[in-house]
Specification:
It is built from 10 helices and no strands. It is an all-alpha fold and 340 residues long. Among the domains are: 50 residues, no CATH class; 49 residues. It is elongated, with a radius of gyration of 64 Å. This is Putative Homocitrate synthase. It comes from Aspergillus calidoustus.
Length: 340
């Protein structure tokens, strides 16, 4: 299936922007041509008046875009007084003789111009006034009169046959509006705005010539179905919808998992609390507190008794240690007295 991508190009001649641009450029070019034609007519009128008066005709002003003219030539054409060569008085000539000579030179120049125009008119008048088709031609072309007329029907048939053969393997810009949509019709830019508007407002008919109001809708639907850009946009929309649904499903699944995890944690906490309470009540006896109190009391009494005994022994030990030095000193005193 061929891809109809030509309608998407920015340089396609059937885009509305390009059509408006061409119309605008045509209007601007027509205005420029009218202005140039008016200036040319004014220049020709001035030259004719100067020739009829016997004066030197002014040279036509050059075009601004003419690159062959130098800057000096442009200034000369812009100012006719500078292009006019100043004529001087000859040696031994007074003012009267100079004026007479200038008048004679101007008259000869005007006469030569008139003869040149007459000769040019005579040369052109030899050509016939009517062309081959019977139309009046004021400016006949010698080469055009010598051309032989060809068979238009045979040339048209040969061109159609060649075009049908080339259509099998060639993509043409003339099919930009649609393949074989402009058969037998000129492109929009070859006609005026009124003709293009009439073509756009033409009623839609089927192949038998009957009115078919739904034909344009079907044609638009067919073009949309064959448009790869619309197919890509549709695929992108479907992909986004699938991603959105998948994201929602993942969020719901995560919420469910969090809820199940919370329920499991609460259940495990209750089970742990119940197990701790059961362990604390196991092997519980009422006499256990009294036995434990009795054992603690006995342990405290035994500890206090041992502490008292230790205190008595330490006190007797101190007394014994103090009495021993006294007996030793007494015995030493007795021995010393006996020796005397």
């Amino acid at each position: 299936m061929p891809l109809h991508l030509l309608g998407k190009k920015s340089w396609n001649v059937y885009n509305p922007e390009n059509i408006a641009r061409v119309r605008r450029d045509e209007a601007q070019a027509q205005a420029q041509e009218e202005e140039e034609e008016r200036r040319m007519q004014e220049d020709d009128a001035q030259r004719r008046i100067a020739i009829l008066r016997g004066e030197e005709p002014p040279s036509p002003p050059p075009r601004v875009s003419d690159p062959s003219l130098s800057q000096h030539d442009r200034k000369a054409h812009a100012d006719p007084a500078r292009s006019y060569r100043k004529r001087r008085r000859l040696a031994g000539e007074n003012d009267t003789d100079r004026d007479i000579r200038f008048a004679q030179e101007d008259a000869e120049f005007a006469r030569a111009k008139r003869e040149e125009l007459v000769r040019a008119h005579k040369n052109k008048s030899d050509a016939p006034l009517h062309d081959i088709n019977g139309h009046i031609n004021l400016f006949p072309d010698e080469d055009g009169r010598k051309r032989t007329e060809k068979n238009a029907e045979a040339e048209k048939e040969a061109a159609d046959k060649q075009r049908r053969y080339e259509d099998q393997y060639t993509m043409r810009f003339s099919n930009a509006a649609g393949f074989r949509q402009n058969i037998g019709q000129n492109p929009w830019y070859s006609s005026s705005q009124s003709n293009s508007a009439a073509q756009a407002a033409a009623p839609s008919k089927d192949v038998w010539g009957n009115e078919d109001p739904m034909r344009r809708e079907r044609e638009k639907a067919r073009m949309d179905s064959n448009d790869p850009l619309l197919a890509m946009k549709k695929g992108v929309r479907q992909l986004r919808s699938v991603e959105t649904e998948r994201k929602k499903w993942n969020e719901e699944r995560s919420r469910e998992l969090d809820a199940l995890k919370t329920v499991d944690e609460a259940r495990s906490r209750r089970r742990r609390r119940r197990s701790l309470s059961e362990d604390s009540l196991e092997n519980f006896k009422l006499d256990e507190y009294s036995d434990k109190h009795r054992n603690d009391k006995e342990r405290r009494s035994h500890k206090s008794h041992r502490h008292g005994r230790d205190k008595t022994s330490s006190r007797s030990h101190r007394h014994h240690s103090v009495s021993r030095p006294r007996s030793h000193s007494h015995r030493h005193h007795c021995e010393s007295s006996q020796a005397r």
